[in-house]
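hey so i finally got around to running both of the ones u sent me last week. sorry it took forever, my laptop kept dying halfway thru and i had to restart like 3 times lol. anyway pasting them below in the order u listed, first the sequence line then the structure token line for each. didnt double check formatting much so if smth looks off just lmk and ill redo it

first one:
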Amino acid sequence: MAHLGTSIYTPIEVNFRCKGGPHYPREAFNLVKIVAFRPNSVFAFMRADQSFHRIEPIEDAAVARNILAYYIRIKGLTFERPPVGHPAATGAAEQPAY
């Protein structure tokens, strides 16, 4: 069942940003990693304007993916990566931990 995990993506367009909203076509992103599904486990990440994920469609009708999802929002707290070419993006300036 490991292949039923969460896929992590980066946008093909380097400076693409999303403040939240619609789902985008899979073709607009590069697959970085698939975090394996493991029963009775947790996978968590911080939402940022360049963090993208999805769960891939299940082809086998006999398989069910049961999940419990939480969305926690801290009012006024955002995490944004600087655009490519910005001093902070090259490590020339201190960056927040992600």
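and the second one:
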Amino acid sequence: MKGRLHPDADAEFADAVRYYSEIDPDLGVRFYREIERLIRDVCAHPEHFRKFDPPARRHISAEFPYAATVEGLAPISRAKCSWVK
């Protein structure tokens, strides 16, 4: 994954993975992969996603009640990538 998760988002991501894994290990894996995909997509192509609290852009999961956001259109190595519940 390019970009960096905000520390709060990283901790919440880990908690959510644990939560879904406790329900069913396969569900935890599906959740992890879905969020990784959202973050990868929105960081790689932020212009493809709607503005959310400009200049941030958001990519919403169709499977889980979560979304990934990216702030700014700086080169990916400097883009601030995060996710929101």
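quick thing i noticed on the 2nd:
Helices lie at 7-23, 25-44.
anyway thats it, ttyl
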